[in-house]
Structure formats: structure tokens, C-alpha cells
Amino acid sequence: MKILVFVECADGNVKKNSLEAVAFAHTMGGPVTALALGSAAQVELEALGKYGATKVLHAADARLNQGIIQAYASVIAKAFQDEGSDVLVLADSSLGTPVAARVAARVDASLASNVVELPNMSAGFVVKRSIYTGKAFARVELTKPKKVIGIKKNAAEVKEVGSNCPVTPYPVTLADADFATAITSSEKATGEVLLPEANIVVSGGRGMKGPEHWGMLEELAKTLHAATGCSKPVSDMGWRPHHEHVGQTGVKVAPQLYIAVGISGAIQHLAGVNSSKCIVVINKDPEAPFFKAADYGIVGDAFDILPKLNDAIKAAR
Amino acid sequence: MKILVCISHVPDTTSKINFTDNNTRFDANGVQFIIGPYDDYALARAVELKETSGATVTVLNVGPADTEPTLRKALAIGADDAVRINAEPTDSFFVARQIAEHAKAVGYDLILMGRESIDYNGGAVHGIVGELLGIPSVSPVMKLDIEGNKAKLAREIEGGKEYLEVNLPFVAGCQEPIAEWKIPNMRGIMSARTKPLKVVEPVSVDSGIKLKQFELPPPKGAVKMIPADNVQELVSLLKNEAKVL
């Protein structure tokens, strides 16, 4: 089985979730070709070999520096055919998932996104998908000869299994029609841990009483190398930007550790965090429903607990 | 301008999820169904565009007859007419093919839907529809303005947003804060009863997806409470018991 992995880059660096996609493909077995588009650091691409890529293709055309869904789909579909691939694996993201959809339609593949673990190939090709926003799973068989799989964070463990791999330039002929969508500008938080990729997330809710108190959460996040998130009311009130909203209609996270401070735990918020490995809830209301979904809980004043917790973690590390 | 809004008919976000028939069928018993929350944002933006620029809004759902109240609600919110493709929405490709068939026959300037449905969570229908119609698709769209034949959009990316321009026609998967959800008023509810709702039979599609079984996550263990004056204990539990530090 030949596997192609789309490796997503941001500012020239390989995104962490794409390493998981390479590791996932490697564990599935078969030769793994990784494909990166646009500007990407050579050392990072070579290092994909360590995580399981047997071949690395780089389509370095500057027009691919921006993530245009149609253009990406065209290049990936072309590489899928050129390489004679059976399966395309990629990490689900705001770019990866829509691109996967177009590629699957183009190459006539069975498509499954939100895949949480390795496929079962003992009888057919069965994947486990997260559905109902993390409240359930479905096992589905992909019956077409070609398959496209989008994986959720934590679907595979990133491990060093080999050594650096040379990078082969992948020349592409781009059609103007694929650039019908033009990105005119972008705004991006820099130097922070990105929420969907973070191993630890520190989130605040209305219990934080105002945006001026976020410094405390940011301090803790800094100590933990964590991303900061928030509840829907907090982003609705404009205390924090929308891309930090964790929940049913916001970002769904799957970190090792989720620390919720001053969030009551409405079911819509829980839908965004229920894939977390460990949940800590700090709330002054002992009746807050979030405690029922938590692994550890503290009832108390966040403004009192946060600095102490920050100190205790610093001391323990 | 002709706008098509595709909506899903999904369990209310507060629903408990259960399955029947040996975990092969969703248990709709006692479940309240709603317009998919992301689709609801798309619909709200379409109705705003109708109010400001005189567009017509058609709302479409792929589903069996019991989704008609959901379509009527969309009509009450402000859509002009409704189309129901009479089939179970089994997977992204199946649904996208049905939408594309309809859109090809009618011809729309703009096709809106949510970024994903909250039951299947595929996030793929907008991309597949775009591909099948040979037009651009953009998702997740959090801002959409139309100026003549051109649209100005904002798309959410990890840690920020991108601003884009694209000519009509195109497909957009929408999310907040593209518009505020609209609650139907009495006049809307009354007029929705007589607005046209057309039922169309599906085209046959092999999407290459076969459901084997549903599964619920294992139940969560009981929460361990730690006194507020002993954060050291929490740190030690996170380190030694949960092993996440």
C-alpha cells in the first residue's frame, strides 16, 4: 500500500499535527511519501524521514506559499496520481479538511475525516471516526480502492523511527483557475502555542470577570508551554479573539491536559474538550456542571489559586 | 442574486447521544432536532443579504420526510422556498452529490452551508460541492460581503484569520460570527406555511463509505476533588498519577 501524506507548513515550519500524520502513515505500513507545498525549511522537510517518510516531495512554487484550497487540492491530487498512491493521509485543520474533500472528489476516493486511530485492515479497511462532536464514534468501512483520511490530533504518536530523508523537488504547473480565490491579507498571533496543536490548554470563562485578568492565565500558560483558550461568552463579549473560543461552534481541542478556570461547563463547551486526556476544573461554584466531566477539581477563588498553582508548577519542574 | 443555503437537521446541542439496533442506528427517541448551528449562521447571513441586496434564498436539506419541520423553520427565518432531497444523509460525498445535482440544474450565484454538520462532523460537503461544480470553495468563513460580482471574505485559520476575495459563484462553509442567529417571528412562521417546499428524489451515488457500527466513549471516572489550599497536591497528581506534566 502506497501512502501519500500532505504535510502542512506554517511560516516555513512543518506543523506538529502533520508529524502525527506522517507517523500515522508509517504505522499503517508501506512506503510513505510526504508532500510539502510552498515555502518550507529544508531541514524540517529532511527530518520528516525520522518520523517515517521514505520520500519527501517539495513543490516550492511561491504561489503555494498561501494556503489556497483549490490550488492545494490540485497539486496534491496530481501527486497522488503521479506517485500511484493508494491512500492520502493528512491532519485535519482549517486548511487540511477542505483540501481533503476536494482531493477525494477529484481522485474518486472514499473519504473519512476526524479519524482517531489507525485503520483496521484485517477485513477491508475500517476507520474509527469521531462523530456528534466527540460524543460518539462510528466505525466505517472505506470501500473504494483509493482512500483519503483526515486524522484528528493524537491519532498517532510521533516517534523517531528512521533518519533524515533527502528532499526531491516536485515541479508543478499551476493553473490560474486554481487561484480564483485570492488571499489579500492575514492576521496571525505570532510566537504563541497554537490552540489546536497544544499539548496543554489553559482556558478561562466568565468567572475570570474581565479581559484585564487574563494575564494570570497567560502566566500559567507560559509556565506550561500551553495555549490559552476561552468559553463562548468570553469570545462573544470580545474579551478574547474568536480563534480562542473552545467548544461546539469553536475550536475542538484534544490536549493531554485541559485546565478550565471559571468555566461552568455548558454541554456546548464540553463538546470542544471531551477528547482531552486529563481535565482540571477550577471554579468557585461547587455545583458547576464541569466538575462532572473533570478528572481533578478545585473549588475556590481563581484569582487566589492561579498564582499559587503557577508557583507550584514552576517549583515542580 | 440566487443563494442556496444547505442545512443539516441535527440533534440539539444539549442532546444525549444513544444508539439502537445493536449500535447501528441513531436513537432519535426524545431528541429534539434543530437546524445545524453552523448552517444556521449561513442561513442568517443569506437572509441579511436578501434584505440588503434583494437576493432570493432557497434552502435545501438532504433528509427523509421528518426533516420538513426544520426546513419550515428555515422558511420562517426568511428563506423564500425549500427543497428536500428525499434520502438519508449517510455521508459527506452522498450529500454533496445531491446538492451538486440540484445546484447544476438551477444555477446559483452563491452556495452557503455550515463549516460542518454537528452529527457527522465531516467538514467536507462544501469542498466536494465546489469540486463537483468546478467552482471555488472557502471554509471556514467568518465574514462575507458581496460587492457586485465579487465577494470579500474572512476565513478562520489556526491562531488568526485570512482575508480573501473571490468572484461569484462559489461555495462557502460558514461559522460565527458571520451573522447573528435569527429567531423566526410570528409573521415569518405564518408565511412559512405557504412557501413552496419541493421534494426531489435523490440520484444514486456510491460514496465508498459503509457504516459498520456506532460506539459511545467509555464513561468518565469520578472527579478527584483537591482542597483549594493544597495546589501542590494537584501538581503532584498531574505529574505522577495522570502523567501529563
Helix fraction of chain A by DSSP (H/I, runs of at least 4): 25-40%
Q: Helices and strands of chain A, in N-to-C order?
A: EEEHEHEHEHEEEEEEEHEHEHEEH
Counting structural domains of chain B, the number is 1
Radius of gyration of chain B using CA atoms only: 21 Å
CATH architecture of the largest domain in chain A: 3-Layer(aba) Sandwich
**Average predicted local confidence, pLDDT of chain B:** 95
Terminal residue distance of chain B: 55 Å
**Helix/strand-derived class of chain B?**
alpha/beta
Helices of chain B, by number, come to 6
Shape of chain B: globular
SSE layout and pairings?
The complex is a heterodimer of chains A (317) and B (245).
Chain A: E1 3-7, E2 9-10, E3 13-14, H1 16-28, E4 32-37, H2 42-47, E5 55-59, H3 69-82, E6 87-91, H4 96-107, E7 110-115, E8 126-131, E9 136-142, E10 147-151, E11 167-169, E12 182-188, E13 200-204, H5 214-224, E14 227-230, H6 232-236, E15 257-261, H7 267-273, E16 278-283, E17 296-299, H8 302-316
Parallel strand pairs in A: 1-4, 1-6, 4-5, 5-11, 6-10, 7-10, 13-14, 13-15, 15-16, 16-17
Antiparallel strand pairs in A: 2-3, 8-9
Helix pairs in contact in A: 3-4, 5-8
Chain B: E1 2-6, E2 9-11, E3 19-20, E4 25-26, E5 33-35, H1 37-53, E6 56-62, H2 68-77, E7 81-85, H3 92-106, E8 110-114, H4 125-133, E9 137-147, E10 150-157, E11 160-167, E12 170-174, H5 186-192, E13 197-200, E14 209-215, E15 224-225, H6 231-240
Parallel strand pairs in B: 1-6, 1-8, 6-7, 7-13, 8-12, 9-12
Antiparallel strand pairs in B: 2-5, 3-4, 9-10, 10-11
Helix pairs in contact in B: 2-5, 3-4
